[in-house]
């Protein structure tokens, strides 16, 4: 599993091993958002009367994995000229021009954590999405 997780940009041997060891079985979570919630990466929800309001990130989850994933996302942002996911015209490049750097890191970690859950549940290796023309 660790080898398959290392195909995701921002996840190296240390992070992949930590996820494989510390994370519970992927079947424990119904969907990827639940896994991100376990890591403490989703927004707090204030819902009433059918109206949903999202607040700040809760940070009430697995602290060590969340920190490691933020470090991995930071490496993707620092080395963005190498990673295809951070080239100009992509989601990450657009976020970096509009938002504060730390907010972009946490958003990228949220995205990475959902990819991690999908790989753990379905198997296979990470394939970068094709660029739109």
Compute the gyration radius: what is it?
Answer: 15 Å
Order of helices and strands: HHHEEHHH
Q: Tell me the helix content.
A: 40-55%
Overall average residue pLDDT = 84
* Number of self-contained structural domains: 1
* β-strand amount: 5-15%
Total helical elements: 6
Taken from the alpha-carbon principal axes, the silhouette is: globular
Look at the helices and sheets and give the structural class.
mainly alpha
Total strands: the figure is 2
How far do the termini sit from each other? 33 Å
Sequence stretches where pLDDT stays below 50 over 5 or more residues: none
Largest sheet: 2 strands, antiparallel
| Order of adjacent strands in the largest pleated sheet | 1-2
Summarize this entry quickly.
With 133 residues, the protein is mainly α.
Description:
The chain is mainly alpha-helical. It has one domain. It contains 6 helices and 2 strands. Strands 1-2 form a two-stranded antiparallel ribbon. Helix 2 packs antiparallel against helix 4.
Throw out a few tags for this protein.
133 residues, mainly alpha, two-stranded antiparallel ribbon, 6 helices, 2 strands, 10% strand, globular
